[in-house]
Amino acid sequence: xxxxxxxxxxxxxxxxxxxxVFGIVDSRGEIKATTAIKTQAYQxxxxxVNASVEALQAIIDIDTVGGxxxxxxxxxxAPNGNYxxxxxxxxxxxxxxxxxxxxLAKLFSDKLGIPVALTNDANAAAIGEMTYGVARGMKNFIMxxxxxxxxxxxxxxxxxxxxxxxFAGELGHVIMRRENGRPCGCGRxxxxxxxxxxxxxxxxxxxxxxxxxxxxxxxxxxxxxxxxLDVSIAAGKGDELAKEIYxxxxxxLGEACADFAAFSSxxxxxxxxxxxxxxxxxxxxxxxxxxxxALNIFRDKPKFLVSGLDGSSAAVLGASAxxxxx
Amino acid sequence: xxxxxxxxxxxxxxxxxxxxVFGIVDSRGEIKATTAIKTQAYQxxxxxVNASVEALQAIIDIDTVGGxxxxxxxxxxAPNGNYxxxxxxxxxxxxxxxxxxxxLAKLFSDKLGIPVALTNDANAAAIGEMTYGVARGMKNFIMxxxxxxxxxxxxxxxxxxxxxxxFAGELGHVIMRRENGRPCGCGRxxxxxxxxxxxxxxxxxxxxxxxxxxxxxxxxxxxxxxxxLDVSIAAGKGDELAKEIYxxxxxxLGEACADFAAFSSxxxxxxxxxxxxxxxxxxxxxxxxxxxxALNIFRDKPKFLVSGLDGSSAAVLGASAxxxxx
Lengths: 326, 326
Description:
2 copies of one chain form a homodimer.
Chain A: H1 2-6, E1 9-15, E2 19-26, E3 31-38, H2 45-60, E4 71-78, E5 81-82, E6 87-89, E7 101-102, H3 104-112, E8 116-120, H4 121-132, E9 141-146, E10 150-156, E11 159-160, H5 193-196, H6 198-211, H7 228-236, H8 240-264, E12 268-272, H9 280-293, E13 303-306, H10 311-324
Parallel strand pairs in A: 1-4, 4-8, 9-12, 12-13
Antiparallel strand pairs in A: 1-2, 2-3, 5-6, 6-7, 9-10, 10-11
């Protein structure tokens, strides 16, 4: 155990639908070396792990790192990752993972000879924020990741909430519209994710364009081609309709946070992901709507923060932080 | 500390709007002695505490208990109770507590010379269930108390969730109807409590009687006099409309539980309070609606249980269990 504690680095893997980004990280959150492979270039998970370990070997052996004996553990943040079992379960966007239960932590651990822990990407982001970011010192907060989907990592009494099965914290799938709700990728309707993800925002844009007369830069695009990035660009140019889209999105997030406060009364809600780049255009309606909808005892209490971690490295840092706990 | 551990009893106080019931309880959950006073017979909280201690003294001194030196601590379950501060804060139904912050734990501790902890009544029920009831051995569950209001006690990783301020776990005030929701006592509309409390059930009865043609025993009563007990009695006689009222109530509880599962993925939902006396009339629609509304990964997972503690003593046992942790 004494020598274990001397190992100065952990490996973080941000396993995304497109890229798998690896980083070797020290205890202060400094990324010493990084590498990446294409997640979906492999049909079989064993090929994926072999390719990963090969890419990793090159950065493990550089002088700064000094070999595997200086690495304490590895942490993985992955969609549908289960912390308890170290598996990825029925991940719809992974060709080698959509069809069953993949024991990814064990596969990496066997190859590398170090402990490996795995959690879902939003939990990894929450752990990263708690270890290196704006949530340092916080015992109770909720992280909401606004990307292709809406993910969440919930921290209570300083611990990530995993629930009885490792799958707790799916706040993108609480129901916000019980009647005439939008269809969600999960097969149900009215989920928060169907409105407040990047795809949800693009859909809101198409709906607003179809049902409102407001002039807008977005009318120059084919409705079916509009993305949340287009909305962001238009809003940046002062486009009124684009601002209304952020208003709508922020108001729903504020309503949702009011319900989440009734659950765990967090010290802060921390937002992460592409949509947060809209800054006050989305954060102001979130705060205002929260104040309007929260139960009186929860008003004026939580902070509404944007992740302080650099977007491109946050996920790797978050994943690496999972490794420190091993 | 050695002698502390030998003290065999704790005092539990179930502080309700009408009665304050005290019990002296041993570590197996056996109530050795009990007494009660009227909560609202005192304008001033000091008079209330003096009357309580006087009533308590009589049972503390009986031979079975053997005096205050055999009592380790006192636990209080009270509306709007804050565990962190030991205070009751703006409790609308208490004449000596509706108007500010009452340091009740300290007042009792000063008088009795033993440690006193306080929590809200639903958290006390959850702790009682974990210590003496159907949640023994469970690390993750949600207790829902269906009484005059809807309260909740959330347990995650074996700990009650208090949040950053001591007020977490107000699941009666998540919003179930965002449009045309019923007014709730909290000043907002559409809360779970406005539908699934005893008063909510009585209101559902009045709405169903006004909007449906179904024949019903409830039509023999003045609508404004109908209580949830009347609905229960009618349902017991096979009344169709009364059954539809439980159906409606259970379905909404199932929908709510589906959202709660997305938060903390509990091993069980445990129901407590008057409405659970309807048995399968309410539990069957809860389970069915949960299955219908839950995200696929949470279906078929949680148990739906009714509290195993005897109704009249459960609240005292729950309160006493808070004392054991001191």
